[in-house]
Design a protein that fits this description.
Largest sheet: 5 strands, antiparallel
Order of helices and strands: HHHHHHEEHHHHHHEEEH
Structural class: alpha+beta
Number of strands: 5
Shape: elongated
Radius of gyration: 21 Å
Amino acid sequence: MNGDWTEAEVGDFLRSRRARIRPEEVGLPAHGRRRVPGLRREEVAQLAGVSVDYYIRLEQGRGTSVSDAVLDSVARVLRLDETEQAYLRTVARPRRQRKQPAGPSRVRPGVQLLLDAMEHSPAFVLGRRMDVLAWNALGDAVNGFSRLAPAERNVARLVFLDPAGRELYPEWHAVAAQTVAHLRVNAGRYAADPELCALVGELSVRSEDFRRLWADHEVRECAYGVKKVRHPVAGLLTLPYETMTTPTDPEQTIVAYTPEPGSETAERLALLGSWATV
């Protein structure tokens, strides 16, 4: 995951977004033979108000000095959302990054105390590679992190490489797509991280589903939502979740499941929590 990767990625990303838009949607004639779906490069350049050569250089990863105004115009033409716009800026103008040290990140003791204080909410901490760095008792009771080998405590590995992942998530396809979209955001943000590069490579080699989803170039921040978990003891759990970035380490994210008080899921979690403390 280095400069060569970001040069290729910006082109792949822009081409994937061009392919989503039909010419008639932006007021262009749809007739005529087209070799590729969606907009041509010349059409994007015209609509964005830049020269064709300039836009081609951008798709080739040679537009590292491109201005915000140009990127905003391209984003408008391609109808990028806020996360996609931020991702385009990241891969179009990659910052020089030092290689990140190997080994797991450390969670401060105060963060662990915060997790432990959340007695009614399953909670855990994710690192930039979606490694599970810490958890509370209920988070472990739901996800079984402590039963996994340290190297396997990774959400992406669990989803794509562990057969139990498909049993754990009844809406597996939605979870898988969300996982890849979030991992791609971090892959662009931390392009100099060799372990993140290795994780993407391993998942690409070992999982056909991951390869297919990675090729879609979807990017998405998973700040909140609802996840369903099929627990072997507690049964089906419907778990709204919220995420919080720790101020002292923006690469670490606290994920907390927040079931509705009095709901069936809350009752099942309470029972699960009582079993976990026995």
